[in-house]
Amino acid sequence: MAYPQELINEVLDYLDSGHSVREAERRFGVGHESAARWRRLRDGNLRANRPHPVKCPQDTVRLALGLAYGGHGFGLDEVAVMVGVSAPTISNWKRRYVEGGHMDIPEIDPDEIKHLSPDGRARMTDEELEEYIHKLELKAAVLEGTVKVLKAEGIDDLSNDEKAAIVDALPASFTVTEALPEVGLSSSSHYYCKAKPERPDRHGRARAAIREEFALVGGKRGYRYIRQRLREREDPIVVSGKTVRRLMAEEGCRVSYAKKRRSYSSYAGEISAAPDNLVARDFHAEAPNEKWLTDITQFSIPAGKVYLSPVIDCFDGMPVAWSIGESPNAELANSMLEEACGQLADGEHPVCHSDRGCHYRWPGWIGICAERGIVRSMSRKGCSPDNSACEGFFGRLKNEFFYDRDWEGVTTEDFIGQLEQYMRYYRDERIKESLGWMSPMQYRKSLGLAA
After folding, report:
1. Please, what sign has the CA dihedral across residues 46, 52, 57, 62?
2. How many CA atoms within 13 Å lie on the side-chain side of 320?
3. Which parts of 95-174 fold into alpha helices (H)?
4. 3-state DSSP assignment of residue 307
5. The domain 291-446 belongs to what CATH superfamily?
6. At CA 134, angle to CA 130 and CA 139, rounded to 5?
7. Cα distances (angstroms) measured from residue 259 to each of 84, 365, 400, 402, 404
């Protein structure tokens, strides 16, 4: 089916404004394949099967246009082979840059054409070929040096100091004199850069402190925590968060996050009536013992499996109580709830939110809640975001304590002891920004809520 050119132009304008071919199909009633084909034809089939066109250096564009349209007698296909792009790409460059008024047809030096043309290279002497190959090797060495020394994409945006570093890093087969023009640096600038005294690293003390603090937490805390620890040292180091993040990256202090593994599920069907979701993803509380969250998580080590059942207070994220065992039975959950209820003052009746696991639907759990005045709340079936604050606690715990550690040879008893120690650390010592860089226990003491 033939479409009028006016319609094709409207579709192309619509696509250029950021809309997809599917949106164009719905708006103009044309097939999305036709719309995509029109765009490819207009753009000269620039990598039609890729999401982004290839970006070429401006020198390549200049050379291709000069060879193809400068009266040198080369066809588009020949020029495409010589510069390493497709013929439609060169046509598109002409339409974009020349016809668009951004540049005139460039003039190309005959010597440059001689080196590029296969026929011209065939007529070169052995000495000329060796010189030509040497220049190509120099270009390759400069690019390789750019990547090795500076991890940069190209030479154009580098400072003089960086260009001088590239020249000094080149193999001995290339002289400084021939390398300087290749990187766009004058001889005087090169020697000035070499003669300058090296400035001391003004962040040297911060770097050492960052490495020390990062190692103390086992590489498990990010730049905000490290920045705060720098400020709390006996000899405080005050630097911005961005600076800490950059220095951590330069020093290789990167927090590793393990891939999410299959989580333990205690769901055993609808064995009793489920209460309403009273929390409704509002995990904020104005005072302690207003909202509790609970769940059970599993740790699998070579010696066996260990289960943790905590109660988390929404007021400050404190683990109010917890139990650890080798079996996810009713006793694990019930003993934890009894311990948490033992900390309640008269008149305190928190909402205790959980998932729909069987532990929270058995008579023992329901009886404790009724006796102690605990208001039960449950997530919707299979909806983990309804208890995301508790899931987040488990995520932090496992990233900092469990993942990326070798548990070979550790018995379940030893593991339980280490996990118990971490839980006390989390409650009493682990500082966080949301509490003014205090631990949950320190925060409560500062408010007079704990002795």
Report:
1. positive
2. 26
3. 110-116, 118-122, 126-145, 160-169
4. strand
5. Ribonuclease H-like superfamily/Ribonuclease H (3.30.420.10)
6. 150
7. 41, 33, 14, 13, 11
Alpha-carbon span 311 to 389, nearest angstrom: 11
DSSP conformational letter for 261: P
Query: Which architecture, in CATH terms, is 58-108?
Result: Orthogonal Bundle (1.10)
Rg (C-alpha) for the chain, rounded Å, is 34
Nearest Cα to Cα of residue 275 among 196, 422, 380, 383? 380
Contacts of 129 (CB under 8 A, 6+ apart): 121
CA distance 340 to 348: 12
Question: For a pLDDT cut of 70, what percent of the chain falls above it?
Answer: 80
> Regarding predicted confidence, which is higher, 436 or 35?
436
E-strand spans in 295-407?
Answer: 297-301, 304-313, 319-325, 351-354, 375-378
* Residue 353, φ and ψ in degrees, nearest 5: -100, 140
pLDDT tens digits along 323-363: 999 988 889 999 999 999 999 988 899 999 998 888 888 88
Question: DSSP string of 43-103?
Answer: TT-TTTTSSSPPP--HHHHHHHHHHHHTTS---HHHHHHHHTS-HHHHHHHIIIIITTTS-
Amino acid in the structure at residue 306: V
447: left (phi over 0), alpha (psi -120 to 50) or beta: alpha
The secondary element (H helix, E strand) that includes residue 224 is helix 223-231
- The string of pLDDT tens digits covering residues 410-425 is 999 999 999 999 999 9
Query: CA-to-CA distance for 264 and 220, rounded, in angstroms?
Result: 23
Look at residue 300 in the predicted model and tell me its pLDDT.
Answer: 92
Q: Which residues pair with 308 in a beta bridge?
A: 297, 324
26 is written with which tokens?
């719905």
Identity of the residue numbered 356:
R
Q: Dihedral of the CA atoms 142, 147, 148, 150 (nearest 10)?
A: 100
Give the separation between CA 264 and CA 325, rounded to whole angstroms: 14
- Which amino acid is it at 373? G
pTM (2 decimals)?
0.53
